[in-house]
TrEMBL record:
It is a multi-pass membrane protein. It comes from the Eukaryota. Keywords: Membrane, Transmembrane, Transmembrane helix, Transport. Its main location: membrane. The chain crosses the membrane at residues 52-73, 80-99, 105-128, 140-163, 189-209, 264-286, 298-319, 331-351, 357-376. Gene3D superfamilies: MFS general substrate transporter like domains. The keyword Kinase does not apply. GO terms for cellular component: membrane. GO terms for molecular function: transmembrane transporter activity. It is found in: Membrane. The keyword Nucleotide-binding does not apply. This is Uncharacterized protein. InterPro entries: MFS (IPR011701), MFS_Riboflavin_Transporter (IPR052983), MFS_trans_sf (IPR036259). It comes from Oppiella nova.
Length: 403
């Protein structure tokens, strides 16, 4: 009974923490407000062209600290790691409220760099910890948490829009806002978000428990196809050797060095690098794209909000699909949908603009989350959970290298 309570508490706490860091995906909504404020208060030269830097800087920080989080978790545990991350993430919003009056570079450092450091420390840590608590439902658990991460954007997009622009003030012909009263609330919004995130972080950290599963040390030997053929395991200084041609009694735990030397890691690295290109672009620029031919900020905000609902549903859906199908089949279907939808997105600017924009937007967000719901469980399945966080972080260097 106590074990079941800890399982459910950890899952709920993990969802709360992802509800917090998932709000970072509202960049597509906040971008227009932040850039407009910078043009009015800091530099008239601020523009959407500069905004493309949010994604590569954020992804780089996220990737680096996902790798680092693996070492911190192994040394200090998931709860301590998440507490540190919550402090960093909440603090980044408070600093952004100050940075907005200075320069784009300062905002880039606080909103993109610092916030994604916090996100990187939390993201994989809590998912892998939950997978340890629910070993028979890896894909579903990862999908639920990833879905909650996406659903966060639905909630916070509404908070942002109705706090900043309740009267649906229209942007000018260039897509920027000029209303002084509305823009004056932008720094206050970040102070509000900082307080909300601090409370959410505290609740989430209190609810999670580190997995109590005993963790033997493994040394793995593999055949030319990267399949384990023998495993040397250490339990309290007593070493035993298990030899197998198929499945070991214990899950194989790869060292970081051994994992990155496998062909499977290389395959994951390249496919993840290319699978995420459209996802990152859509997340940051879809609203700006819509504003180029739809002059209705409230409509775009509502569509963007519901696209995050589609994102959340997609996380659960693709997680379940991964548990039922092979990883390869799942990712082929996801990439097929993403490629077709991204290529044909331009159609929405010519016909039935509002309707088609909504349809394409929902499809892209529904499919895009499947990439993130699929890769981390596969890393755990193939390489074991001991170093899965760091190995996943190294796979995440793929998108960084293509920016």
């Amino acid at each position: 009974m106590a074990l079941r309570v800890k399982q459910l508490s950890t899952l709920v706490g993990s969802c709360v923490l992802h509800l917090m860091v998932g709000s970072g995906n509202t960049l597509a909504n906040l971008n227009t407000y932040m850039t407009s404020y910078l043009r009015q208060k800091a530099s008239r030269d601020a523009n959407f062209g500069e905004s493309v830097w949010y994604t590569p800087v954020g992804v780089t920080a996220f990737t680096l600290f996902t790798i680092i989080s693996g070492f911190i978790v192994n040394k200090m545990g998931t709860r301590v790691t998440c507490l540190l991350a919550a402090v960093v993430f909440s603090g980044s919003m408070a600093l952004t409220s100050l940075a907005l009056d200075n320069s784009f570079i300062m905002v880039l450092m606080s909103y993109a760099l610092m916030a994604q450091i916090g996100n990187g420390l939390i993201y994989s840590s809590v998912i892998v910890n939950c997978i340890k608590w629910f070993p028979n439902n890896k894909g579903l658990v990862a999908g639920v948490i990833t879905g909650i991460n996406a659903f966060s954007s639905f909630i916070f997009t509404q908070i942002q829009t109705f706090y900043l622009n309740p009267n649906n003030v229209k942007p000018n012909s260039d897509g920027y806002f000029d209303e002084t009263e509305m823009l004056s609330k932008v720094p206050k919004l970040f102070n509000l978000l900082s307080g909300i995130y601090a409370v959410m972080g505290l609740i989430g950290v209190c609810l999670i428990f580190d997995s109590e599963e005993p963790r033997p040390n493994h040394t793995v030997q593999t055949d030319p196809n990267d399949n384990p053929i023998s495993t040397s395991m250490n339990f309290d200084d007593n070493e035993i050797l298990v030899t197998t041609t198929t499945h070991s009694v214990f899950q194989t735990q790869y060292s970081i060095r051994h994992a990155i030397n496998t062909r499977f890691f290389t395959m994951l690295w390249f496919t993840f690098a290319f699978s995420t290109q459209s996802v990152y672009f859509i997340n940051s620029m879809i609203k700006a794209f819509g504003q180029s031919y739809i002059n209705d900020d409230h409509y775009l905000s509502v569509i963007l909000a519901f696209s995050f609902v589609a994102n959340g549903i997609g996380g659960v859906f693709w997680g379940k699909v991964l548990d039922l199908l092979k990883f390869r089949d799942t990712i082929i279907v996801i990439n097929g949908i993403l490629a077709t939808s991204t290529f044909s997105l331009i159609i929405s600017s010519f016909f039935c603009q509002k309707l088609f924009f909504a349809i394409w937007d929902f499809v892209l967000f529904f499919a895009g989350v499947g990439v993130f719901a699929s890769y981390l469980p596969e890393v755990v399945r193939k390489f074991g959970d001991t170093n899965a966080i760091t190995i996943y972080g190294l796979i995440h260097t793929g998108p960084v290298s293509t920016k």
